[in-house]
Structure formats: structure tokens, C-alpha cells
# Entry
Amino acid sequence: MKKAFITGITGQDGAYLSQFLLEKGYEVHGGVRRISQPETVRLEQLGVEKDVHLHEFDLSEGNNIFRIIRDGEYDEFYNLAAQSFVGSSWDQPIYAADVNGVGVARILDTLRTISPHTRFYQASTSEMYGLVQEVPQSETTRFYPRSPYGVAKVYGHYITTNYRESFDMHASCGILFNHESPLRGKEFVTRKITMALAKIAHGSDDPVVLGNLNAKRDWGFAGDYVKGMWAMLQQDQADDYVLATGETTTIRDFVTFAAEALDMKPEWDGEGINEVAVDANTGKRIIEISEKFFRPAEVDLLIGDPSKAQKALGWTASVDVRELASMMAKADYDNLS
Ligand code: NAP
Ligand code: GDD
# Structure
């Protein structure tokens, strides 16, 4: 039986990866932060919380990481933990650097010292492309991060490739484009939209208040992306791979797809912060804009080229953005029923 450790096991990807590895027969361990009310709700939603072994864990604590690795003898180590909300990284840039950047080095240096056989996965991100230098973005596109989150992730990415090249470690980075699900955190734009629209469909009069509707993202389903993470660690040679759908969509169009899945008929009117959407079926205002949700620097366009992963790993995204918006909106609607 293979043994894996997942940092960030309580997060969206951690839950889906746990489920996937358990189905493959792995013994799954994961790191949980000590907080006043332990949050394993996603593992519970997938019905796997009793099948995983949880350990107190924080990426900012080197000795904690050392003991976990020394005591565990893991075959695979997936580093999914991060301060993952881009918006917060302007408020806590030093924390983002420590956890998302230096935290990766803490793990790698421990693995190098006491467990060099362990295969390592680093959660790199399309946010590293930032002000994009090429369209679509691939493994060879130059990085130009636009947030403290993105800058820290670039460090995490390069320290992983550096340890691979310096110490011959099996360490791979998945450069993952946005991936969502009904388990997505409520502050991310897709889930914020689907939760609020579901409430409106149940009778609420509160519109969703958003920021920049023109940003474009390459959105896929998280359940597909964790399979790609695993596939990377099964290769003879470690390498870096983009996982993406190859399709890009504005926030505005995501709203439309989610609203239509709930039998609304959004009509858009106005421009900039005066733009609104009204459900033509009911006359209710469903979208408003506020400057509060604009970012100090924006990533305008993300669209990934997943051809390397398709060819080498046999990986493809199976859910398109319209299906994804519908899946999330209907799950949120059903949760409220
Ligand atoms: P998520 O749902 O926000 O989960 C993040 C996880 O990290 C949570 O389990 C969180 O624990 C944990 N964590 C945060 N700070 C920590 C610390 N200091 N020490 C230990 N654990 C800590 O994020 P996700 O969507 O699953 O993303 C997983 C990873 O992929 C992240 O590294 C993210 O940056 C990266 N990524 C995500 C996407 C995407 O679109 N989802 C795309 C590219 C890359 P708590 O439950 O205690 O908060
Ligand atoms: N969160 C949020 N809330 N975003 C909004 C809003 C709003 O009210 N209105 C507009 N947006 C825009 C943001 O400005 C951004 O352009 C886009 O919606 C997506 O924002 P998020 O859903 O917060 O995701 P993200 O793209 O910044 O970051 C996610 O994807 C990255 C991969 O590219 C996160 O999962 C990161 O951890 C991940 O690395």
C-alpha cells in the first residue's frame, strides 16, 4: 500500500485528492492547522474524513514539517497548502511569502535531508503568468506575477525545479489554471456568484456585488485536476506541467451560465461600476458592481495550453465552463432546499 501526505488536506483540492488516492488504495495522511474549530467539512462532504489520518501541521513551522516527514516515510508528498486567496495577499504579503514561498523550501530541504526517495508535488499556479507574456500560456511562457501571492508562488515553483536539478529529487510542479467545484471556498468569484444566485432563486432580493467583470479565466473542475497531480508523480522523470481546459471566459459570462442554470434570464445594462444585470423573468436586480472588489493589480487574461500534459500524462479536462457553472449553481441551490 502506498502512503501519501497531503498538506492543505482540508481545502478544496485536498479533499478531492484524498478521495482519489483512497480509491486507488493509498494510505492517506494530511496536515491540519490547529484552529479553534477544526474544519474538515469538505472531507465530510466527500465521505472520506474517517478514512484519512490527520496530523497537526503548519507550513510556517520547520520542526513540525521535519517530524511529520521523519515519522511518516511517505512515498508521495503533495504540497497543496497555501494562503490561496489572491485578494488577501495584498493585506498579508509577508505571510504569503513565508507560507507559499519559504514553506516550500522547508519541505524540500527536509525531504532532501531525510527522505530523498519521496516524490514531491508542488501546487504552482497560472497566477504566476500575471501580466501575460504569451497567449495561450504554456510551461515555457515567462512569468510576470501581479500579486504578492503570485510572487511567492514563483519562488515555490523555482525552488522546486532547483531542488530537482540540484539533488536529483523527483519533484514536479503542476501549473494549474483556475479549478472550481461545489467545494470551492466562498470568497472565490465563482462560488460567490453561485451561492448568491442560488439564494436569489430561493427568494432573496440581495444582488451579488462583484468587482471586475472583464477579467478572463480558464476554469475547470477540481475533481479532474487532482488526477493530473497524481499522474505527474507516476512518471519516471519529474517535470512541470500545465493543467487547463484551453478555453477562457469572462466573469460576466460565468454569471450568465450560472444564472441560466437556475432558470434566470440575465440582461446586462450600463458600464464600469454602473453595470448591472437584471433577471428578465422576475425583474430582480441580480448583479451590482463595487470598487471594493477591484484589485490593486489585475490578471486580465488566463488561458492555458495543456498539450504537454495531454501528450505525456494522457490528462484532459472533462468538464467545460458551462457545465461547471451549472454544477456549482445547482449544488448551491440544492443545499438551500
Ligand atoms: P484552498 O481550498 O484555499 O485550501 C488551502 C489549504 O491550505 C487549506 O487546507 C488551508 O487550511 C491550508 N493552509 C493555509 N495556510 C496554511 C498553513 N500556514 N499551514 C498549513 N496549511 C495551510 O485551496 P485549493 O483551491 O484547494 O488550492 C490548493 C493549492 O493549489 C493551493 O496551494 C493553491 O494556491 C493552489 N492552486 C489553486 C488553484 C485553484 O484554482 N483552486 C489553481 C492553481 C493553484 P485551512 O483549512 O486551515 O484554511
Ligand atoms: N474573489 C473575487 N470576488 N473575485 C472577483 C470579484 C469578487 O467579487 N469580482 C471580480 N473578480 C475577479 C478577480 O478580480 C479576478 O480577476 C477573478 O474574478 C478571479 O478571482 P478569484 O476567483 O478570487 O480567483 P483568482 O483567479 O484570483 O485566483 C484563483 O486562481 C488562481 C489560479 O489562477 C485562486 O484559486 C488561486 O489560489 C489560484 O492560484
